[in-house]
């Protein structure tokens, strides 16, 4: 069910509260928590996640432990406006640059986890060059069958813990990155864990991101599906199928928002 919250105008989608309304709020909240030495995770909700949350209890449990949740999906941002609790689309990939800029200025060391060795090497080099003062204290590319509770995950957790990082960018794809971040919350103190999907690949140019105009129009998903229809067409079909249910569930809030607007 999608409903608005009275406190801070937060939005809840199928039981998951989006408590970050904009990119600027996300950056300031994450940097503040990191500077205070807090442990936290960051998730970015989109329709694919909504679909998976219905089927995977460990994924839902990981989401419920996240300190900060943003609206990644464009349809979710639209629904938020219709219900009178507008949020700005804030993706994990888009968070990397402004967070690294602040991390460089405020001497917050970072760690990179995910993708592959080539991507991590290129990303670390490009981020350090672009953002003066940024310190990348380590990186690790797990195997393709990475499991969040495996021996390899034990090693990854140890490397993050001993690196001295205060922010860790996790690029494992959903739901693995969110589940691993939730595990780290129990075993690592004083670090923020950000689930960013393919964000590191975009920086390294090992994976092409949709053109900026498609992102602005909310059509990034269409571009991705055209470029990889066999893998993504079924996923987006499931995402589209969930939209009517969310709209129907939100009708009372939409009506109330329209009444308030015309009053």
Helix-strand blueprint:
Blueprint: E1 2-4, E2 11-13, E3 16-18, H1 23-35, E4 40-45, H2 47-55, H3 57-64, E5 68-71, H4 74-82, H5 92-106, E6 110-114, H6 117-130, E7 136-140, H7 151-163, E8 167-171, H8 176-187, E9 192-195, H9 199-204, H10 212-216, H11 220-227, H12 229-262
Parallel strand pairs: 4-5, 4-9, 6-7, 6-8, 8-9
Antiparallel strand pairs: 1-2, 2-3
Helix pairs in contact: 1-5, 2-12, 3-8, 11-12
Structure characterization notes:
The protein starts with a strand and ends with a helix. The longest helix has about 35 residues, at about 230-260. The chain is α/β, with parallel strands linked by helices. The chain has one domain. The strands form two sheets. The chain has a six-stranded parallel sheet, with helices on both faces. The chain has a three-stranded antiparallel sheet with strand order 1-2-3. The chain contains twelve helices and nine strands. The model is unreliable at about 1-10 (pLDDT under 50). It has helices at about 25-35, 45-55, 55-65, 75-80, 90-105, 115-130, 150-165, 175-185, 200-205, 210-215, 220-225, 230-260; strands spanning about 1-5, 10-15, 15-20, 40-45, 70, 110-115, 135-140, 165-170, 190-195.
């Amino acid at each position: 069910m999608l409903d608005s919250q009275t406190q801070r105008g937060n939005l809840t989608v199928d039981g998951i509260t989006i408590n970050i309304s904009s990119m600027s709020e996300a950056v300031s909240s994450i940097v503040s928590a990191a500077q205070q030495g807090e442990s936290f995770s960051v998730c970015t909700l989109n329709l694919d996640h909504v679909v998976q949350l219905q089927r995977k209890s460990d994924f839902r449990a990981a989401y419920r432990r996240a300190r900060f949740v943003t609206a990644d999906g464009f349809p979710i941002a639209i629904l938020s406006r219709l219900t009178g609790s507008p949020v700005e689309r804030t993706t994990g990939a888009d968070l990397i640059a402004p967070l690294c800029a602040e991390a460089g200025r405020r001497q917050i060391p970072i760690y990179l986890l995910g993708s592959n060795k080539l991507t991590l090497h290129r990303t670390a080099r490009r981020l350090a060059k672009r953002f003066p003062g940024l310190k990348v204290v380590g990186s690790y590319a797990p195997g393709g069958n990475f499991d969040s509770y495996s021996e390899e995950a034990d090693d990854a957790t140890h490397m993050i813990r001993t690196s001295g990082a205060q922010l860790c960018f996790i690029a494992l794809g959903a739901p693995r990155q969110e589940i691993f971040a939730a595990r780290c919350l129990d075993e690592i103190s004083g670090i923020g864990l950000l689930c960013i999907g393919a964000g590191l690949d975009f920086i390294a140019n090992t994976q092409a991101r949709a053109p900026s105009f498609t992102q602005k129009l909310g059509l990034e998903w269409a571009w991705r599906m055209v470029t990889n229809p066999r893998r993504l067409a079924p996923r987006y079909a499931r995402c589209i199928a969930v939209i009517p249910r969310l709209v129907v569930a939100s009708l009372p809030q939409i009506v109330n928002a329209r009444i308030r607007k015309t009053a």
